[in-house]
Amino acid sequence: MGEETDARLEATILDLLSRRAPGATICPSDAARAVGPEDGWRDLMEPTRRAAQRLVDAGEVDVTQGGEVVDLATARGPVRIRRR
Q: 80 has which bridge partners?
């Protein structure tokens, strides 16, 4: 996985969110499935979380758990991504 995949994941997260209503969320697996092969998208889950963190750092998105904004570095379990 390289810079090209990282850029595709970031762009895919933003694209998926742009297709949703304001305040709606996506699961990181939605982006991983869109970028990865049908049988290999799980390998993209950690890179997708890192892409989401870069977008958080850029002020583009928030990562939530149970509807509350969380720090992705310390969040355990399923998270969601939404536009900031």
A: 64
